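Alpha/beta fold hydrolase, Geodermatophilus sabuli. Tokens?
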Amino acid sequence: MGRHIRSGDRAIWTEQVGRGPDVLLIGGLGDTVESWQFQLDGLADRYRLTAFDNRGAGRSPMPDGPTTVEAMADDAAAVLEALGIASAHVAGFSGGAMISQELALRHPDVVRSLVLQSTWPAMDPHLSQWVRFIHWLAGAAPSERAFLEGFFLAIYTPRAHNDGTVAAVIEEAIAFPHKQSPEDTQRTLDAFAVHRTLDRLDRISAPTLVLAGGIDPTAHPELGRAVAERIGGAAFEVWETESHQPFQEVPDRWNARVDAFWREVEARTGTPAPRDAADDAWSPDRPPESARPVGTS
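Tokens:
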């Protein structure tokens, strides 16, 4: 079960499962702990995973005043501090990948490694125009369902739309009791739209894996490549048949890839590798079962 941690006057909803090396999971626009359900279920036998609701999403209230990626990165650092975690492997997707970049820049000592899914160093004109459209859609859509149906066209593959995956995600999102308001969606979009790390990425020294979906129409592969080229030693991979959120659409493949990356980092730094489930008889705490994660991007 999750709980709120306190950072000054901020309340941040946080959940933690598993045992092993620490991992911090950072979601994107409007995303909550539930967006990482496949990772919380699939990796807790090897890692201690911490996920949280970003400010203004789910059970974490939006504070007054401007919303910035810098402030969201400080929230992530506050979660680690409150839980007594000195450093963690950090994985973020979409806007959460921007928060992860900023976390590594502002709080480098807490980041053991970075996995950046569907990321960018600064929005290009195409992505900027898409964000302006979603900003408009959040306020103009006649219903939550209409907003999600339009938004998810650019988030999930045609495969996921055609096999019923997206319909199931929409039903879970509509049933989810802790919704992000359209106004908070727009404030978060505004923060992502103006944020740039382009000229600072060479300061990141943490081992980094950048993943891009080959058919992602938003954070297209050229943007991910631009991030990887500016972080020394970063690995870059394009998954040609995937879109914005392969960690939800092909979670077994995604989990295996990041597990291999984290094991490589642990081996390189001389830290014992995470246990396999069959290594001994201990069993980690598990989150409640969920058929599909609830999330946006």
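Confidence is low (pLDDT under 50) at residues 277-296.
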